[in-house]
Design goal:
Elements lengths: L1 H14 L14 H10 L10 E2 L3 H12 L7 H13 L1 H5 L5 E3 L3 H5 L7 E3 L1 E4 L4 E17 L5 E16 L3 E11 L6 H9 L1 H4 L5 E3 L2 E12 L5 E8 L2 E2 L16 E10 L2 E9 L19 E11 L4 E12 L14 H6 L3 H6 L1 E13 L2 E10 L16 E11 L4 E10 L14 E2 L2 E2 L8 E13 L2 E14 L1 E3 L5 E4 L22 E17 L2 E14 L4 E15 L1
Parallel strand pairs: 2-3
Antiparallel strand pairs: 1-11, 4-5, 5-6, 5-28, 6-7, 7-9, 8-9, 9-10, 10-12, 12-13, 13-14, 14-15, 15-16, 16-17, 17-18, 18-19, 19-22, 20-21, 22-23, 23-26, 24-25, 26-27, 27-28
């Protein structure tokens, strides 16, 4: 019944548009294509630190690429043709290559490689409506020293609706249900909790063997695109990271928010105020669990393109716990750390403030470098002091990306996180949502060197390789009475003990090395019908305890998105 009411609501809206205001989901591969075109100097003004973009913005970049096809490889030209079909209305205002499956021509085009299929669509000069359904069947298996033999089969199905009204108001809703005929087992736990690279962006509610996911928003954008207001629940990213982002990762879970975007020429600014899942502070048995009544986040982000070859970003955020709403943090023109200090000493110590600066340079065609610095709980008076207070914690990232005429992208990235980065000493205002990091997927007190190769054999067949070497320090020490003696700062959800117990040193604690090898394939034999496969080998070396484990995971899926 709810499904019919929702669909009916959107048909009422239609009774009431070429400039499409809807956002393009961050998982859409068009962003990888745009990044490659930026490095090829086809769209040098593209800024990959800001995501998601509106369909109108993406269409503008695609039109520029179309006007410079002489710079494209044969495979990139095929990619462009695919995106011209997918974003046809956004680029031209036409729907010649869109098909409604409720019509005879739509059914006849099911196997057409150059037609975009929908369950239903409608478009005129004032309003648009696109309705789609999707389904996927996936299988997983695992074996090794720590997981023995496990396997599972699951399915996901759902629908999405989107559209724009009067060239200024966009709506979007995506609802999905995942079911499994078997009991919820170790593999899903692994996907959700242990490896965000495999899991990807999703909003998970677990009920035994079922998952429910949804995203949706209402968005207003001015005619000249200088201002936009968004209210909803959807994923977003902040940062230049080529494999994983330091500030707000593509592997984090979406949250509900209100967002203001301002744009003028080479300057982009955004302010976000949202609600996070209040994580329980009962991380360990010796601490009483108590769900948080509220957990909020406020974020400022400023990006400036000084030239086609040099751009910079400034970012700050604060996580506020057990204070449902405060105008102190709602001011879009403020310095959040100063606002936090003005809220009162007790409240400010219970919040978690982070500050970041990043830059990207493109010194030559096909090559770019990025650097990002994150400061957790900045305290100017102690910034040069090395003592047991441990006030200032840092994370940084350096990366390079190279693309070439063989349709191959190669990225190398180094990431370092000090002990307790992203965590918070009262275990309330951690930089997490549903206990998952909003930032880089690496745990605190760790570093990582990662290399990724993506090779587009054709526009419909891609293979990728990812290698990550991680070093971590973990562990919590308690005495026989359960009194905390030491916390080495390796658990994002447990920051208690970061101050005064000991002076934090990088990689103190139980030393863990991880070598993670991931090989993936994506094949789209028919447009909107895809097959994926993913294999990961996890080799973990507990150096302190002289214990080594090796585990293998395989994930395969076949899906359709109409």
């Amino acid at each position: 019944m709810r499904l019919f009411l929702i669909i009916g609501f959107f048909f009422i809206i239609l009774g009431s548009s070429f400039a499409q205001v809807e956002l393009v989901e961050i998982r859409n591969p068009v962003y990888n294509f745009l990044k490659r075109m930026q490095l090829k100097d086809v769209i040098p003004g593209y800024n990959s630190s800001i995501s998601p973009l509106s369909r109108g913005e993406v269409a503008g970049f695609l039109k520029t690429i179309k006007n410079n096809q002489s710079k494209l490889t044969a495979t990139d030209k095929k990619f462009l043709r695919d995106y011209e079909v997918e974003f046809e209305y956004d680029m031209t205002g036409q729907t010649a290559n869109q098909r409604d499956l409720f019509t005879k021509s739509g059914l006849n085009s099911l196997t057409d490689q150059y037609k975009q299929k929908h369950i239903y669509f409608y478009a005129d000069s004032n309003k648009t409506f696109f309705g789609d359904v999707f389904g996927v069947i996936s299988g997983e298996s695992a074996n090794g020293d720590s997981v023995s033999n496990n396997s599972d089969l699951s399915g996901e199905y759902g629908f999405s609706v989107r559209g724009t009204i009067k060239n200024s108001v966009a709506y979007y809703l995506r609802v999905a249900e995942e079911i499994s005929p078997f009991e919820f087992n170790y593999i899903e736990n692994y996907q959700i909790n242990d490896d965000t690279i495999l899991n990807g962006p999703m909003n998970v509610n677990i009920d035994e063997d079922n998952f429910n996911t949804y995203t949706g928003y209402l968005r207003y954008q001015t005619e000249l695109d200088w201002l936009a207001l968004t209210f909803g629940n959807s994923p977003m990213t902040i940062g230049y990271g080529y494999i994983d982002k330091l500030f707000m990762s593509q592997y984090g879970l979406p949250f509900s928010y209100g967002k203001l975007d301002l744009s003028y020429k080479a300057v982009n600014y955004s302010f976000t105020y949202g609600s996070l899942k209040g994580d329980s502070i009962g991380i360990y048995p010796y601490i009483t669990a108590r769900p948080l009544s509220s957990k909020s986040i406020a974020t400022h982000n400023l990006n400036i393109n000084f030239s086609d070859a040099f751009r910079i970003g400034l970012w700050e955020t604060i996580v506020i716990s057990e204070q449902p709403f405060s105008f102190t943090y709602l001011n879009p023109i403020s310095f959040l750390i100063s606002a936090d200090l003005s809220s009162g000493e007790q409240q400010s110590t219970e919040n978690n403030s982070l500050l970041g600066i990043e830059t990207e340079i493109t010194p030559v065609k096909n090559l770019s470098f990025q650097g990002s610095l994150l400061i957790d709980d900045l305290t100017f008076g102690t910034i040069t002091v090395n003592d047991s207070l441990n006030e200032n914690k840092f994370g940084y990232q350096l990366g390079g990306l190279w693309t070439n005429s063989w349709n191959m992208d190669v990225a190398i990235e180094f990431t370092h996180l000090d002990p307790f980065v992203y965590s918070q000493r009262y275990n309330k205002s951690t930089y997490t949502n549903y206990s998952r990091s909003l930032g880089h997927s690496l745990p605190p007190n760790s570093d990582e060197i990662a290399a990724k190769i993506v090779y587009d054999i054709t526009n419909r067949l891609q293979v990728n390789f990812l290698y990550r070497h991680q070093r971590s320090g973990e562990g919590i020490v308690v005495d026989s009475n359960g009194v905390l003696q030491a916390n080495y700062g390796g658990n994002i959800n447990f920051g208690l003990g970061d101050a005064y117990l000991r002076t934090n040193k990088f990689l103190d604690g139980v030393r863990i090395n991880r070598d993670l090898i991931n090989i993936g394939i994506y094949w789209e034999p028919l447009r909107q019908l895809y097959i994926t496969g993913n294999y990961e080998l996890r080799m973990i070396n507990n150096i302190t305890d002289n214990l080594k484990t090796s585990d293998s995971y395989f994930f395969g899926a076949i899906g359709i998105d109409l």
